[in-house]
What does this fold into?
Amino acid sequence: MIDIFTIGYSTYSIETFINTLKKYSITALVDVRSSPYSKFKPDFNRETLQTMLKKNNIDYVFLGELCGARTDDRSCYKNGKVDFKIVATSTKFQNGIDRIKKGASKYTVALMCAEKDPIMCHRFVLICRNLKSNNINIIHILDNGETEKQIDSESRLLKQHKMDQPELFRTDDQRLDDAYDLQGAKIAYKEVEEDNENEN
It folds into this structure.
C-alpha cells in the first residue's frame, strides 16, 4: 500500500507548512496549481517555495500543466467552464496521474494546492478521484495539521450533497459518482471569473 498525501497551503505560514510536511515524513511536494504563484502568499511562489523545500531536503515537482484545474485544452471546456470528466480522459492528465504514481513509489508524496478544504479543491474532486485504487491510500492534511482519509472526505462530500443515505435506485458507487460530478461542476474553473486565491 502506497500513501499519497494532499495539502492546501492557504492557512499556513511557510514555516508551519514545512514543519507539517516533515511531521508526515513528506519527501516530495507535487505542486498541482495551474499557476504556481500566489498574490497573497508570496512564500508559496514557485521559486521561493522550491528554495525553502530544498533547504529542508524536500523535492519539488510542478505538475500544474498536466494536472491543474485550468487546463489550456479547449476540448475540456463546456460553455466556458472546465469539465473535469473530460479532463480526466485526456492524455495530458493521464500522464500526470502516471507521474504521480511513479513518484509515490519512490518518495512520500504530497499533492499541494491553495484550498484548505480538500473537498473544495480539484486535488480531491479531479486528481484523487482518478488516483485512488486498491494499492493507493490517499490522506488529506487539513488546515489544523490533522489528517482525513479519502473515504472520510467522500463521506463529507456525500453529506454535503444530501446523498449520504442508501437509495433504492442508486448504488453507493453511483451516489458517490454523482456527488463527485456535482462538486466538480461547483468548483470548476470558469473563464469569466477573475483570478483569486483559489489557485487550483
About this structure: The beta strands are 2-8, 28-31, 59-62, 77-78, 81-82, 109-113, 136-141, 147-149. The chain has one domain: 2-187. The first strand starts at residue 2 and ends at 8.
